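<instruction>
Derive structure tokens from the sequence
<data>
Labelled lines for chain and fold
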Amino acid sequence: MSTSQPAPVSFEHLPDGLGIGTATPRLTWKLPPGTGSQQAYEVRLERSGREHSTGRIEGSDQLLVPWPGEPLASRESVTVRVRVWTAGAAAPSAWSEPSVVEAGLLDPADWSAIPVGGGWAEDPAAERQPARVRKDFDLDRPITRARLYVTAHGLYEVEINGLRVGSEILAPGWTVYPHRLRYRTHDVTAHLATGTNVIGAWLGDGWYRGKYGFDGGTRNIYGTDQALIAQLEVTYDDGTTVVIATDATWTAATGPIASSGLYEGEHFDARLDDPYWATRTPEQYTEWTPVRLGNRNPRTLVAPQGPPVRCTQEMAPVAITRTADGRHLLDFGQNLVGRLRLTADGPVGTTITVRHAEVLQDGELATQPLREAYSTDTLILSGRGPYTWEPRFTLHGFRYAEISGWPGELTQESVTARVYHTDMRRTGWFECSDPLINRLHDNVVWSMRGNFVDIPTDCPQRDERLGWTGDLQVFAPTASFLYDCAGMLDSWLTDVALEQLPDGTIPWYVPVIPGKPMWTPIQPGAAWGDVATLTPWTLYRRFGDLQILRRNYAMAKAWVDLVERLAGPDRLWDTGFQLGDWLDPAAPPDDPAAGCTDRYLVATGYFAYSARHLSLAAAELGMEQDAERYAALAAEVAAAFRRRYVLPVGRMTSDSPTAYALGIAFDLLTEPQRRAAGDRLAELVLADEARIATGFVGTPVICDALTDTGHLDVAYRLLTQTECPSWLYPVTQGATTIWERWDSLRPDGTLNPGGMTSFNHYALGAVADWLHRVVGGMAESMPGYRQLVFQPRPGGGITWARTRHETPYGAAGSSWETTADGRMRIHVVVPDGCSGVVRLPGCPPVHVEPGEHELDSWELLEKSA
């Protein structure tokens, strides 16, 4: 790309434009480096040999700009370029490099494929062996284009002529299948040749019919069938098209996968593996039988809104220990989510068993935290020489693996850990002078990676792995800084809205699966249900996408209206089942909701906060009456909160850090009450020697509450505490991810006995948002970071910090240091098209335009004197 041209256009929140699911995709581009600001732009579309130009359009819009031409038709491909006029330039920029957007199948009538799977009888209550399906077909002329549109009931991996199609795993991911089944578009032109071709697919149970959920899990949550839905469309060089779709002409057979489950692991018999199964002609496959046909309403087939799950990193073991009985214990040095790829050679029938765990206890795998997720993979060797294998349809959370039955010497080259998560683009970085805090931040990143696996999960290792709404709600600000997760979370919020009950209740987790007796039937709960109002707002602020607010507004309004009815005229939500400040460290291991803070105080506080954010969303969407109504409701709830939960002496009825932090952070208090609450909060923190005393609700806001009431030093005391419970205690214990409990591993070295003791859970890592904004000193002051605030507030002995974020407009950064003579120097980067303000302690604010700027606190003070 030339420095005089904009970056190539991108579409919606997708990494590329192939198979897009909207006829009018929005366009985003970044300005040529160093050009400052845009005054006008022009978009050129090339479609079907014709060219269309918008002509010069005045304005600075460059983020999610409306589609400027006729809507796309299904399968239509359009090349898009943009050029811009920037401030001070006499001529327009060069045209951007071309970007291609191609529509998927936009009309249900475009689909002719029907689900096909194994035609044999199965016991739906038992573990079933997965099927493979295949079809051979002839192409009698040279081809110019081929597209595969594919999804499944269950999971799939497709091969054409023996070559894997795509690199994603656990496709099609997990959505609310009755309403939305995601399909993906692949360009498979290079896979095909004139003559005989074969398409085949491995199938797995996955979330669709595999055993999933609590207390032994539930099978067949969405159906008993396992089926491929595939439509291969091939265009010949004369322009004619042939369609090879799943139908009654396909055949099926079992393969070398004996069993596979997301929790259980995978069992593979290499003796039954034929690498040519998807390349040979049917007469060589007499054991293949007709498929069973299924049903799927094509109206439920939807294109992706974000990237798929892929391998993003490979890691070798850092240590291999052989036990006295011949097992091998592998340490990968990092708690990760993925699978092992093995290369082994041994006699026929040799059985290699791999077990996984996050931590060790007395030198052995600690499997108690896994509950009933057995996380065991088995490979049976064929005896035909070295064999490389990796499971297909399972995923494990682990740092340690135990391998039994390995033939010969096990070396680092024999085993690789492959890390998997939704393949989001990394956008945020932070580091500072304190190595423990740097490790804490790394742990947050790793926990996000391990739990953003198609949906935002609560843990990746045990028999749960669900999309808990409250966990994501508190972590969304951190997530949206670290990664471009807009498309993934937009898709998940679509499912949250689909799962919302008619009365407005938001489920505890989405997609919804059975969870008796605690989680089924679904009840409305504060903090978890508030994902409906708070997370769309967070995504709007961070990614600048007003449509996310618009699409989720009805869901948010229904939620707030429900809570208003539950609270009644006194505006206090003080009835019903609530989780309160979940996993408050004072709560007993077997009752995580029994914290120090009145759960109805939490509920009423969130009621006010959600009503206020609904009002803000309404204002952004131009709904003035709603904005006024919900602003007034928020004020009424805040007044009720003060009457019920704030005592005349200034204390709160729950004299706990979470109560004061919520009152401050949610702006529920009068100014005198706010000052008193800040002082009492600081007093409580210091009285406990700055050990943390908050759970999922209080933890994300406590440092901001202290900072905003003049107790920055106490916030840093909390941050830098290393005794249990604290953020840094797990770091001192060697943690490489965020723990679910502050004491998942107790100071005496024993595991927390609670049933929920995950060592990879991002919720308590929500403090990273404070690290980015306060320690690093960079935050957005307009949606999409169009305006930034650089306001580092040093403390805790930290002498420097660097924060960088790839905003929708380009790279922004803040790098500061303090010197022995008391100076503070800062280097800031403002993206083209944006502006900012720098606020150094004790100095007047300085407005900055696009580019790089160096500022010195002493020089600023001298200029202002």
